[in-house]
Recover the amino acids of this structure.
């Protein structure tokens, strides 16, 4: 049986608490010349290894984010952007405006939030499904495999703008390919050309474009993940009489779990925060039905230079995503240790 | 692996669907790029009625495509390589050492993926300008600023993925290397990195593409000389007209080197543990 | 020596980063605000919004003029043509950081919003006198350069307004002998033109700025104001509701607008439909360069004023918005004198003639019109509208919010109209009320 999924995790647990793999060679050669105690050195090494990453994260992500949080407590409008220190302290008023769902601002933010949640679930689900299907079906030798693999990565190689603008061209009502095929060639909709860039269909449009754009990434990551699965596991399960499905469920997917755990999470976060796709597809005023939150915040506050309010909305978003991520990580990690 | 009889059919069907889904927009790009603008605007047709290569000549005149392309290439390659280098060290530490703060580090790094770009665009910009004023190193408007920004954008995911890949490499292999007298970093370079090549290649591609396609930050942080393709391509949408045929021609032209790069890297992408020298 | 080795590896990483740094620094634009060498060769940085067929074309149009300026004054001007998509963000960045160009040109509808930031140099009477006096400038255009009662924060360089373009051949084929003078005539003509896949009128239904401009023009005709005397928004006043409904009814009720126009977002599609003969009329600013780019004959297209309301209706006799581009100087510039010299140069009669001729726009100074190029029928018609029946958008800091909110609300209303949903006073008012409530006071 191959129920034992991620062997390294078990190893991890049994590793000595202070961690470092013992270099047995050190004593043997007896060439320790450093004056720094071995233990301290070993303790310092991981920190030196992560130091560049920490510095970069602080500079680019953490500090600007903290500044952004600070902005959310200010009345930082166009009057004050030249001199932030003069912006009056707003307390929680930016937040109150955003979460007052009886007001137009709050209600539209909430609407946009729900649209984004549904969009994210659909887009991530389909991207993951397509990516997994693509990667799994690509296993095994067949003609044209290399060609297909490259082809699948092409949407990923196109600059985002190029891919999305092509879709917006295809989705135009009068001159687009989609209606050309559906209405002119397949004679659907009774000859009445549907809109894809405005109205209700625009939601479907943005989901499809987002999937087109992000499934190759899932494919890429899962394909690399599949390479790391020990082929012995398949042989062992085959000896146990497991068929293709059984192997998929008991070997492939469990072995991909660590990859999937991160992949799905980041796909979720990126899709939720995706700005480029809706912005290029719809311009700076998205249809209400496809009013994704990143463009909504950009439009309702940043375009009018009301940064206090925009930051407050962003912070609320951040809190939501933090919560989802925390729950997700706890849930998936527990499942992992149950396995 | 034993393959059931239906698998070739499923493969044909599944991959065929994915290929079609992928290909149709690409076909639209190709066919539109060889049509005169008027034909493109007048409604879609599968086969161009008038074939022209003019758009491929015009793209260089409408926007300084060459400059944008070189900028993107420089920014994306350097930030990808640097990001993977930084991530390899960090991931190795996380994968192979238990140290206080490890969990905080990984979780914090991952949580940076939650920041909406627009929340830290303006603060980051201010930091760059102020750093420039203090140190004289111009980050705003320079490629350096973009490189640092993008390398950090791809860092969290790169670290997490590499931790995953490194974790799946049996520790016994590092131990063996250490018995041979390599230090911990020797084990990293001689054992872990070679064994993790597919993962590293995948992450490099990811980091490259992150920088290649980013629009929001590039639109604020670049000027005439440093503008990248991702924002530069918007130059084909002018006040007069959207030059659809040129947008598509330009997109194709700039994507060719990237696709060729993918092709070259493919070999490494699918070279797994068993194929390497590890077994 | 294991430690040494480790440090070595880390040094490799460091070197990579250093290599990255080396690649970035070399060719940064020195940024006008930063680089000023008082006495010798002053260099100005000028951000020009994209006016011509492309960014590159603009550069080629502007460069000879900048060379001329350098010959005359010794001041070098580095121009960067900023695409519209980036312009607001770039100006924001410059405003926030005090690092950016010395001189910038922008759409005049942003004037009051930018004035509120204090980023631009007020052009008080002393400054204007230096430019040849206030009187030289076209009144309406100068009025659109900042809030009333305050010195303007820029001077107009390219003037424009709205007019009604019509396709002469389509009109003749439909048996119409002159452009419509009233709205009833426009609707009637539109109905005659709407047949065989062709339409009476083209609109850019998903363009926030076009929508908001029309909301303003129609609103004026109904006697509506977007902001009351105290500066409070009143987008949903009965007059504004009626105005916007009248505009939407062109599609929803009269059916002289192709429903597909509801998804036109990039600011060029309605023009293309018109220029390519898919629609017979278009309410737009100058389309001279589109006509040239499309390779069609300008004489095929006539220009008339947009119909005015019946004087007895109580509306204002306004049928155009004072559109155009202003030239502003950033407050933080260390080259104020040079920057003002440049402004003076750009508003000189010679440059006004050369540039406005090229761009198909109107000179903004009275002494710029004595050129045969501005005596054509179309230019004279625009000139007449701008001088007599055009009004500037409200010059309040919340103006940019008006454009965004009302423009977006109208996008949705066009979408409703296109899909056959009823457009009533109530539905229009509901959307406008929502827009109104979202205005966050700027001051």
């Amino acid at each position: 049986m191959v129920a034992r999924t991620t062997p390294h995790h078990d190893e991890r647990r049994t590793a000595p608490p202070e961690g470092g793999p013992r270099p047995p060679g050190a004593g043997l050669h007896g060439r320790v010349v450093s004056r720094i105690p071995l233990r301290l050195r070993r303790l310092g090494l991981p920190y030196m290894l992560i130091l560049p990453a920490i510095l970069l994260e602080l500079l680019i992500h953490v500090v600007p984010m903290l500044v952004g949080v600070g902005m959310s407590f200010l009345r930082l409008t166009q009057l004050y952007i030249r001199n932030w220190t003069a912006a009056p302290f707003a307390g929680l008023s930016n937040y109150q405006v955003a979460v007052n769902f009886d007001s137009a601002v709050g209600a539209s933010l909430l609407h946009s939030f729900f649209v984004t949640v549904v969009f994210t679930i659909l887009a991530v689900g389909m991207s993951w499904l397509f990516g997994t299907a693509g990667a799994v079906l690509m296993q095994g030798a067949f003609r044209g495999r290399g060609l297909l693999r490259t082809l699948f990565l092409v949407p990923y190689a196109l600059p985002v703008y190029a891919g999305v603008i092509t879709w917006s061209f295809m989705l135009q009502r009068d001159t687009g390919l989609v209606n050309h095929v559906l209405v002119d060639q397949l004679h659907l909709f009774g000859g009445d050309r549907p809109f894809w860039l405005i109205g209700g269909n625009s939601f479907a449009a943005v989901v499809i474009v987002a999937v087109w754009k992000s499934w190759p990434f899932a494919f890429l990551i899962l394909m690399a993940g599949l390479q790391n699965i020990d082929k012995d596991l398949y042989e062992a399960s085959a000896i146990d009489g497991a068929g293709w499905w059984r192997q998929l469920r008991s070997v492939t997917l469990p072995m991909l779990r660590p990859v999937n755990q991160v992949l799905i999470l980041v796909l979720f976060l990126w899709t939720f925060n995706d700005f480029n796709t809706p912005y290029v597809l719809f311009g700076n005023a998205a249809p209400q039905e496809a009013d994704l939150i990143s463009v909504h915040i950009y439009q309702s506050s940043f375009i009018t230079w009301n940064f206090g309010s925009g930051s407050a909305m962003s912070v609320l978003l951040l809190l939501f995503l933090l919560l989802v991520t925390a729950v997700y990580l706890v849930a998936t990690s527990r499942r992992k240790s149950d396995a | 692996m034993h393959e059931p009889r239906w698998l070739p059919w499923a493969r044909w069907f599944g991959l065929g669907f994915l290929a079609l889904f992928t290909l149709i927009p690409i076909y639209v790009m190709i066919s539109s790029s060889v049509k005169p603008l008027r034909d493109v605007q007048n409604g879609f047709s599968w086969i161009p009625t008038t074939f022209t290569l003019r758009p491929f000549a015009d793209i260089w005149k409408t926007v300084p495509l060459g400059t944008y392309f070189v900028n993107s290439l420089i920014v994306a390659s350097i930030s990808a390589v640097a990001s993977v280098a930084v991530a390899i060290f960090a991931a190795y530490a996380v994968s192979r050492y238990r140290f206080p703060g490890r969990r905080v580090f990984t979780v914090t790094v991952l949580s940076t993926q939650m920041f909406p770009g627009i929340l830290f665009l303006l603060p980051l910009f201010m930091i760059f300008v102020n750093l420039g004023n203090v140190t004289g190193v111009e980050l705003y408007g320079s490629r350096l600023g973009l490189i640092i920004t993008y390398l950090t954008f791809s860092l969290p995911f790169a670290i997490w993925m590499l931790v995953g890949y490194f974790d799946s490499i049996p520790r016994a292999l590092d131990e063996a290397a250490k018995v041979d007298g390599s230090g911990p970093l020797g084990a990293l370079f001689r054992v872990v990195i070679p064994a993790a090549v597919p993962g590293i290649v995948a992450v490099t591609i990811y980091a490259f593409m992150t920088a290649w396609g980013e629009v929001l930050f590039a639109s604020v942080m670049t000027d005439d000389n440093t503008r990248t393709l991702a924002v530069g391509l918007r130059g084909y949408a002018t006040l007069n007209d959207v030059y659809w045929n040129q947008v598509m021609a330009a997109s194709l032209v700039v994507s060719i080197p990237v696709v060729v790069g993918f092709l070259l890297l493919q070999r490494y992408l699918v070279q797994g543990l068993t194929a390497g020298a590890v077994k | 020596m294991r430690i040494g080795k480790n440090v070595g590896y880390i040094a490799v990483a460091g070197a990579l980063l250093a290599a990255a740094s080396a690649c970035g620094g070399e060719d940064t634009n020195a940024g006008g605000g930063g680089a000023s060498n008082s006495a010798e060769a002053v260099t100005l940085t000028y951000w020009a919004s994209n006016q011509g067929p492309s960014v590159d074309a603009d550069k080629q149009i502007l460069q000879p003029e900048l060379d001329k300026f350098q010959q005359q004054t010794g001041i070098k001007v580095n121009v960067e043509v900023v695409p519209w998509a980036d312009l607001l963000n770039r100006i924001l960045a410059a405003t926030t950081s005090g690092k950016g160009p010395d001189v910038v040109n922008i759409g005049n509808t942003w004037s009051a919003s930018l004035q509120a930031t204090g980023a631009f140099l007020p052009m008080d009477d002393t400054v204007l006198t230096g430019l040849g006096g206030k009187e030289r400038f076209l009144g309406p255009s100068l009025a659109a350069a900042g809030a009333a009662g305050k010195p303007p924060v820029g001077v107009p360089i390219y003037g424009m307004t709205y007019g009604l373009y019509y396709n002469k051949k389509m009109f003749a084929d439909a048996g119409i002998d002159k452009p419509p003078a009233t709205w009833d005539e426009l609707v009637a003509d539109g109905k005659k033109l709407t047949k065989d896949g062709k339409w009476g009128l083209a609109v850019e239904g998903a363009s926030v700025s076009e929508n908001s401009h029309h909301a303003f023009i129609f609103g004026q005709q109904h006697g509506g104001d977007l902001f009351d005397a105290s500066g409070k928004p009143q987008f949903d006043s009965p007059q504004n509701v009626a105005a916007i409904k009248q505009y939407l009814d062109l599609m929803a009720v009269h059916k002289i607008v192709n429903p597909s126009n509801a998804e036109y977002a990039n600011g060029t599609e309605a023009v293309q439909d018109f220029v390519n003969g898919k629609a017979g009329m278009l309410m737009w600013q100058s389309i001279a360069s589109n006509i040239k780019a499309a390779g069609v004959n300008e004489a095929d297209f006539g220009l008339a004023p947009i119909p005015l309301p019946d004087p007895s209706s109580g509306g204002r006799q306004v049928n155009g918005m004072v559109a155009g581009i202003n030239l502003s100087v950033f407050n933080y510039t260390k080259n104020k004198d040079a920057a003002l010299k440049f402004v003076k140069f750009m508003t000189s009669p010679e440059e006004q003639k050369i540039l406005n001729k090229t761009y198909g726009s109107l000179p903004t100074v009275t002494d710029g019109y004595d050129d045969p190029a501005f005596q054509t029928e179309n230019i004279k018609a625009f000139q007449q509208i701008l001088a007599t029946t055009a009004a500037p958008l409200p010059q309040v800091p919340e103006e940019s919010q008006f454009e965004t909110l009302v423009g977006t609300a109208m996008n949705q209303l066009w979408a409703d109209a296109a899909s056959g949903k009823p457009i009533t006073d109530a539905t229009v008012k509901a959307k406008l009320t929502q827009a109104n409530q979202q205005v966050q006071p700027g001051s």
